[in-house]
Amino acid sequence: MIRQIALAGALAGSMVLPAFAAQEETASDPVTSFTLDNGMQVVVIEDHRAPVVEHMVWYKIGSADEPVGSSGVAHFLEHLMFKDTDNMKSGELSATVAANGGQDNAFTSYDYTAYFQRVAADRLGLMMKMEADRMTHLRLTEDDIATERDVILEERNMRTDNNPRALFTEQMNAVQYLNHRYGVPVIGWKHEMEELDRADALSFYHTYYAPNNAVLVVAGDVSPDQVKTLANQYYGVIPANKNLPPRIRAQEPPQIAARRLTYKDARVAQPYVSRSYLAPERNHDDQKTAAALYLLAQILGGGQTSYLAQKLQFDSRVAVYSGAFYDGVSLDETTFNVAVVPVDGVSLADAEAALDEALAQFMQDGVDPEQLDRIKLQLRAAQIYERDNVGGIANRYGQALTTSLTVEDVQAWPEVLQSITADDIMAAAAQVLRPEPSVTGWLMRGEAPEGAQVQPVAQLPIQQEVTQ
Amino acid sequence: MIRQIALAGALAGSMVLPAFAAQEETASDPVTSFTLDNGMQVVVIEDHRAPVVEHMVWYKIGSADEPVGSSGVAHFLEHLMFKDTDNMKSGELSATVAANGGQDNAFTSYDYTAYFQRVAADRLGLMMKMEADRMTHLRLTEDDIATERDVILEERNMRTDNNPRALFTEQMNAVQYLNHRYGVPVIGWKHEMEELDRADALSFYHTYYAPNNAVLVVAGDVSPDQVKTLANQYYGVIPANKNLPPRIRAQEPPQIAARRLTYKDARVAQPYVSRSYLAPERNHDDQKTAAALYLLAQILGGGQTSYLAQKLQFDSRVAVYSGAFYDGVSLDETTFNVAVVPVDGVSLADAEAALDEALAQFMQDGVDPEQLDRIKLQLRAAQIYERDNVGGIANRYGQALTTSLTVEDVQAWPEVLQSITADDIMAAAAQVLRPEPSVTGWLMRGEAPEGAQVQPVAQLPIQQEVTQ
């Protein structure tokens, strides 16, 4: 089993997607959607250029829905879903996919857990048969639990505990969220992962894995009618869980005190300043503020021609890198992030001061209309190129439909982006770029803790990408 | 209903008790303890100097046991416990106590909720009858809920939202705890209090209000036999709740990144620096580290002759006040706190630098043996004086028995304190006074937020005391 992408959310904190990922298809997308009688939503994206299909099942359940004290159970269950079912042996699903020339994997984030296979289009029924089987017929032995708990602990060790940037991001998130579960890492706190047991996994499974809590996304060389027939045959026969709990989460209180943190680690190769601001997310029929923030991130920190790059990398030359990030696909309040990596010899204090000066100057200068037009044009172009990536489109619909957005919201997004004015962007900037809802972090080179074996850590890019 | 003390925990964050409260009686205490057949623990403290009795029922349930999203429900239920029961009208219990010349009240903290009456000793049976009645026969109307929810919201408004120090402390706690529920205020987050309903209150009541989750403490002019007879008559007939859930809470991950926060408020009369360090609590049969921390707080910040007062108030004269606080009576990890109030004209940055310098100097100087001897002698004296305060003794046993300590632990505490050496104290200081598990806060005078009506706020002492 490959699990490369399972931890993208955990590593990146509020998951930072590649820039193009926020572009959506226009209303002319070849997208069809419907709902089975048992409540399972279905989205079909037609693309007949190659006889291939991507089959995904997304559950509206993620780490932010976990019971208190059981952090990591959503991701743990994702691993366990490859074990024995009533009809398949452990590993049989992936082996069958591979034997049919395909690939499969799964991933977990704050708001969703998803399973997918990419295979020849005529194997779609077989994929559904296996996926439907493990939706209800999972068997878990104590041996599975013990083995797979070791696997996720080693995953945490490798991806988080051996990575100062991941530890730093984890602490930043924990301080950003005072009440909401987004402050707890997707992979889980180690001391809680160690206690996860069979009862935890099965309780999570039986509560949340049901067709009325799932979205089926099929993309590729298929017709909606074919998908409907197969979906009814394999998924339609599974009864809805009538006891599915409402998805209610603890929300943030007003964030009234600016926070800071310092994380020192002997393994840090490149110190930097990171800042996150609590920010609104994309909501159903209400995406304008999020669109303004998305454009703000592009203007401030989207590449070499961005405002921060000009100020910090070219004018004052205090930084080797600067960036701004905002995704917005999130069930609850998300973050707007900026980062500055200073040049050798510039302190983090000076880098932060330069960042603050640049942001203050931006609030005075306002949006350069030519830059905004250029970015909007680039977005239009990116949307067109994006149509070539049917897997990317499938991901976007899956993410959207598990975070309270609709097919219509996804289709409206490109026009919402185009409709945003310079004034909208400055209003969103004034709303979000305030000290009170912010956390400023310094990742610093520190002394090795006593007795610690310091291993060199490979340098990772600051902007974590989903490595699908 | 008076509810002065209900919010002590919420206001003070990790509740800072007056210095004498940590002294316990010696093994010669006139204390008897036993358990009823239904699991209710009973502690009797004899004091025959006056024909008066203090009757307390402590539930092993507090705000840190609340369901996610329902912050404030423990305290809300405390209020509602004065409403109609099957056998009493709303307010009847307090009216009956008053008509009998007594007083009654209740209070809620992170780890416990307690109800008490002080009356003539011959009214003990009547008190038990009423208290036992509301343990199981509470009735709640929608009208009670609406009325009392407004009361707790107004309480929060008055005690927290109109008090910059309380807001500051609330934010400090939220940033201190990354995972544990001690980061959520006892009174609750306002947006969650607004949503508390009858089902929340009744669910909490039916789950946790039961004799096997309660401790009866009776102090005063009674004999253990009298108490046993009455307790069996009134409480012994109530069946145990066999579905009482185990008291399992989410614990902290390693705290690896020093945190800071700044809270600015136009109503701040006196800016100051506050720092809290995550610290071990008193545990059953394991009180030495807590005792060392208790003595450390006395040495560093217990009055005018303390180390910080000497350094900051008398030598460098940067501070008008300095203090160190540690209680240790807590079910889970608690905090060790220091605070410095600078003199006019000294910045918070300079005050903090002076604090850090003084703490570093203390780590080099070590404990002054004469100061330690003097403090131990004062503790011995305080213990003796404390015997006069039977209510204080009752409180100490109630707090201890609801935070996993035993009668034996309480009785051992004075000797544990006396056994602590200078080396023990320096080891505890080295363990706790580190940047990584700390939060440093600046309470600053700020601009009034737009549209806000700024009301002058009465100056409160930094060290909040329980105003029982």
Structure description:
- 2 copies of one chain form a homodimer.
- Chain A is of the alpha+beta class.
- Chain A contains 16 helices and 11 strands.
- The first copy, chain A, has helices at about 10, 75-80, 90-100, 125-135, 140-160, 165-175, 190-195, 200-210, 225-235, 290-300, 305-315, 350-365, 370-385, 390-400, 405-420, 420-430; strands at about 30-35, 40-45, 50-60, 105-110, 115-120, 215-220, 260-265, 270-280, 320-325, 335-340, 440-445.
- A 6-stranded mixed β-sheet of chain A has the order 1-2-6-3-5-4, with helices on both faces. A 5-stranded mixed β-sheet of chain A has the order 7-11-8-10-9, sandwiched between helices.
- In chain A, β9 (about 320-325) and β10 form a beta hairpin.
- Mean pLDDT of chain A is about 90; it is low at about 1-25 and about 450-468.
- Chains A and B meet through α6, α7 and β7 of A and α6, α7 and β7 of B.
- β7 of chain A pairs antiparallel with β7 (about 260-265) of chain B, so a sheet runs across the interface.
